What does this fold into?
Amino acid sequence: MSLDSTETQSLLHQIRDSFRVRENDKPIYLDIGGDHYQRVSSPQHQVIFGRRGSGKSCLFVYCMNQSKEAGENNFIYVGMDQFKTLKFPDILTSILIDIFSQLPGAKKKWWWPFGAKKIQVTLSELQKTLDTAFEEVIEEENRQKKAEKGSFKPLDTTNLSTERASEYSVKSKFNRRKQDFLERHLPQYKRAIKESTPSRDHRINVLLDDYYLVNSHLQPDVIDYLHRLFRDTNIYLKIGTIRHRTKLRRYEGQTIGIELNQDVEEINLDKTLDTLRQTQDYLVAILDEIGRTLGISSVSSELFNPDAAHALTLASGGVPRDFLNIFVEAVSLSVRSGKVDKLTPTFIYKAAALQAIPNKRRNLSEDAGVSDAPALEAAFADIVTFCLKEKKKTAFLVSSDDVQNMAAEHEMLQQLVDFKLIHLIDQNTSAASGRPGRYSAYTLDAALFMAPRKRNIEIVEFWIQDAHRGSKGVRESPIYPLQRIKTNQSPSQLETVLEEVGNLPAEPDTA
It folds into this structure.
């Protein structure tokens, strides 16, 4: 089978059609070396972490489909992208409406002769609440009666007393906050849930997908209310999100939110480059499985040259969606160049350069927003400058002391990992040349330096073991001081830095 064959083109169309999993899709899901499907189906509150394209939505939709096929229908899907612009508590109210409207008994039956069920009353109440002001002034007027005493003297001169009732009105004015209304009615909503799911065996899993799109300042408030609401019910929260774009708790005299591994179970979907071989096997298995649905026994055996799988894994940073996207673009580039035999690293890295950095920068801008994106872009620009212009190496070390002493800057570094602009390659290593302490090691995204491969830049081949059975070149990498993130805050540098890196001398193209 060649790269320009009918079978290969059908494969490319199949992958393009499944780039973004939606609620009504039927995705292929592989649970290699894990039990994520069983865990998400279990009666536990959970947070499922994974970078964009790691398979969170795929896992959620697969769980829903499996439940429907078994005749259970015990999953409720809520996509956060439809609510991400709302303020609190409207965002919480909208989420509640979405969830409650999918509970058993939520829809009214035209033939039902009795009164509305609690869940129907609750839904109607929430809809009205959503349309009210965040805080409104309420005026009430109560008419009350007042007794007036009097006396009169009849003809027999005996004094008699009497009472006469008169009416008067009392006006009162008070503020009603929408947030307080939701808090006061939480027990009522909990009763409505229990009525809607009366059987102890009837569990419902609520899938909150892309939770990281919710404003980070609001995330603890939303999840705190939902967790309290569903406690002691048959409803279990499953939150799909990106780790370092998520804030699950804060402390304001009392804890608001939830705590990992105390209130909720943690599930991690990320496959990273520090376990490159296992990650490569996982990604190739996904591609091969997609091919089998089209009658192709093994895509990797048919279409890859010996180095293609490694190059695809490195170029994708271990992210399944990026792996598939780059594969599609690389095959198209190769065919247009007249190379139709096997896919080679040359076209893989060219495809990554065309797609990766622009897409990842766009994701950063969209997901981080106007408040966080400039600082993250400035940090990324400085790391690229440090590695490729100053030190001439593609990897760098961060000391454990900096991690402890500069938590905010380290958190920004982890967000760049989540945005797939840099990648973790070793969680705990030492440094060569007698440099004391322990370090974590990172590499720049391969799209920055592999297509075309830059001259006078040392590519740290961390996937190769050196004579000391360590990752080749990692211990010799330069130490990046996190203090630089604090002092370099100009996001406008990024365009200039990327342009300068793109213009660095390149080795001859061997395609």
The chain has two domains: 31-109+117-128+180-268, 275-502. Residues 396 and 478 are 5 Å apart (CA to CA).
